Amino acid sequence: MVKRKWTGDPSCVFCDQVETINHLFFQCPVAKCVWALVGQCIGATDIPRNNTQYKLWIDKWLPDGQKIHHFGFAAICWAIWKCRNIAVFDAKRIRHPAEILLHSCAFMKYWAGLYSSDFQGKLLDGIKVVLACAHKVLAQQAAAADAKMLLPPAENQPEEEE
Question: Are 28 and 50 in contact (CB under 8 A)?
Answer without folding.
Answer: no
